[in-house]
Design brief:
12 helices, 8-stranded parallel sheet, 2 domains, alpha/beta, TIM Barrel
């Protein structure tokens, strides 16, 4: 069995990551776990037999899990232990990611702008998503597409409040906003979760508010806090490590402000200040983010890079590429999938999960 020695074992490092490689699923995962030649990814259905060790931004070797040096083993706990169910929402079947239905009560969202611009249409759309199998709904009143104009909180609140109030009676609701005033109004109206694309950085009052409300929260990476200008900042050395480092620092900072890790989900922010190459690298190396010890949310639904890859210019017609991306993210350990096309995603997940398990599922969708 290969053994780490010399610099690998002894080096004192300021920043270290263990990146799981070679993910297994189903019977292969169970067999390798039983033999001790793989470890579970966040206690879920995926297992990894290999790791890449990264120190100070550089790969220092690929090893089988049995050969991980003692000095690195403390990092394994957050990678292998199952985080608590996000917001207490249990998956429909063990190991299935949660499906978060996107409800943009906006006239200008890139993906579905205008489709649910008035409250009645939005509420009907939300109920349809729940009937199609969504586990939770993410309701937003400000578009964050690149270049979008900011919306003042009063207008954002006016757009979403009746929708939140109604749908929160039917399912867990998260509010997609950067503004503390909107968070407060939505939580008051029954929303349970705060999803902030700026990771609670845009509004100085946001972190204290979320901490006091004891609300679960999604922290997303984007460069800066302004969707209008974020694409100009799409410059990274190693995008995966830089995004992971950002999220690690945000989780630590917010823990210090009274938001426990158990209430946090992390999100690499696909499409936010990122080129297509950055988005693809983040998806391919998604298992690294499991080391943060939080559920990982992926939102790639209908995004522009999918249009470029598939040749579909119109965002509303990107359901198939979105589902393909969602399944790939699930196979890389995503715990929550933020999607517009709920029915298609839920159907695809059912087939993917049964095929990976190699057996008939306990319950139908
Ligand atoms: N993407 C969008 C908005 N909010 N939140 C998280 N956590 N992750 C994401 O990837 C994410 C997000 C953008 O997509 P959409 O809501 O469809 O469009 P718009 O911002 O134009 O309303």
């Amino acid at each position: 069995m290969p053994r780490a020695s010399g610099p690998l074992a002894a080096r004192s490092m300021t920043e270290r990551w263990i990146e799981p490689l070679g993910l297994l699923q189903g019977p292969a995962a169970s067999a390798c776990l039983a033999q001790g030649i793989a470890l579970p990814l966040q206690g879920g259905p995926l297992a990894f037999p290999l790791v890449r060790l990264l120190a100070e931004g550089r790969s220092i070797g690929i090893l089988p899990v049995q050969a991980i040096p003692e000095a690195w083993r403390s990092l394994l706990l957050s990678l292998t232990r199952r985080p608590p169910d996000f917001a207490g929402i249990a998956p429909r079947l063990p190991g299935r990611p949660l499906v978060m239905g996107i409800l943009n009560v906006t006239p200008d969202s890139f993906s579905d702008g205008g489709a649910a611009a008035d409250a009645e249409a939005a509420i009907a759309r939300g109920h349809a998503m729940l009937a199609a199998g969504a586990d939770l709904l993410d309701i937003g009143g400000e578009s964050t597409r690149p270049g979008a104009d900011p919306v003042p909180p009063e207008e954002e609140i006016r757009r979403i409040l009746p929708v939140v109030r109604e749908l929160a009676r039917a399912a867990p609701v998260s509010v997609d906003t950067r503004h503390a005033a909107t968070m407060a109004a939505a939580l008051e109206a029954g929303a349970e979760i705060v999803n902030d694309v700026t990771a609670l950085r845009h509004d100085a009052g946001a972190a204290a508010l979320v901490a006091a409300a004891e609300a679960p929260t999604v922290l997303m990476h984007m460069p800066g806090t302004e969707p209008r200008t974020m694409q100009a900042e799409a410059r990274y050395g190693d995008v995966v490590l830089e995004v992971a480092r950002f999220l690690r620092e945000r989780v630590a900072a917010l823990e210090a402000e009274g938001i426990p890790r158990a209430r946090i989900a992390v999100d690499p922010g696909i499409g936010f200040g990122k080129t297509m190459a950055h988005n693809l690298a983040l998806l391919e190396r998604l298992p690294l983010f499991a080391g943060l010890g939080c559920p990982v949310l992926v939102g790639l639904s209908r995004k522009r890079f999918l249009g470029r890859l598939s040749g579909i210019a119109e965002a509303g017609r990107r359901a198939v590429p979105s589902v393909a991306g969602a399944l790939f993210a699930a196979s890389r350990g995503a715990a929550i999938l933020r999607v517009h096309d709920v029915a298609e995603t839920v159907q695809a997940l059912a087939v993917w999960q049964a095929a990976a398990a190699g057996m008939v599922p306990e319950a139908a969708v």
